[in-house]
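so my prof wants the structure for this chain in the tokens format not the other one, which i didnt know existed until like an hour ago. anyway here's the sequence
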Amino acid sequence: MEQRISLITLGVSDLARAKAFYEQLGWRGQEVQETVFFQAGGLAVVLWGRDKLADDAGIADSGTDGFGGMTLAQNVRSREQVDEVIATATRVLWQPRHALPADAYATARTIAA
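here's what i got, hopefully its the right format
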């Protein structure tokens, strides 16, 4: 699996306020369907409603379940690479929990879902 992150998505409670913050830092974003994309070198930082991000990940955002309001994504070039990434994440998921960092299990489970 190639070591690369394509997107960092930040779940925010106030999209306009978050966009204004990054723009005050000198970043220029593009709004697309209730998200804001900022190109950051070879990856994109995406602002999206926290509730929508949790829903997209298929988890409840109770505030106490470990969901940090952030996701990482890796874009790949082919269906075969998608299958490879999912197989690797699934293999990691089935390791004994003591072999993984505390939050890796939830992350791998979300990827494999």
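also thought this was worth mentioning. The chain has a mean pLDDT of 83.
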